[in-house]
Request: fold
Amino acid sequence: MSNTRPMTLLIVTTVLAVILAGCSPGTQEAERTVKGTIDLQPAEETAVVSQQELASARGILMRHLEALSSGDTRVLLETSPEYRHYVFRQPSWPDQARSWAQLKVVTLETPGEYLDDEAMRRVCREALGRAPYQVAVFHVVADRPFATTDDQEMDLDVVMIRPSPDSGWLVHDMGR
Reply:
């Protein structure tokens, strides 16, 4: 009986230490970071996007989508920020590109359906190290005739950014 008491005390102490460590603010912060929680600090001020600038962003987006459809990697690189170029330089890209062949845009409108401009400003700030000059989110619905049967209709938002006042619009990301 005297041998089990120290062992029980050791187990209870260990369990209590683990519980207390898991409840510490540092652990909770690390857990949120691991789970991918977006920093909720206010984004730096970004410039308001005029109708003329939205039209310009829409034109770049259409050029990007046409390049996806035709497999024009040169245009995809021109219309994407440098930190996204790896996507089009992967050895598997030609195989992935086949599913985008003959893409037909059904609708392209702003604002986005799934993504919010303010939240995207925060996400872009993480990618760029600062808030982009401008952000615009478009909702795109398109037909992808050569995609797998469960993925033929593309329904997603596209995040467009202008990193600085003297740069053009770029396709930051697509998704929901």
Q: What stands out?
A: Strands lie at 104-109, 134-143, 153-162, 170-175. The chain is about 45% helix and 20% strand.
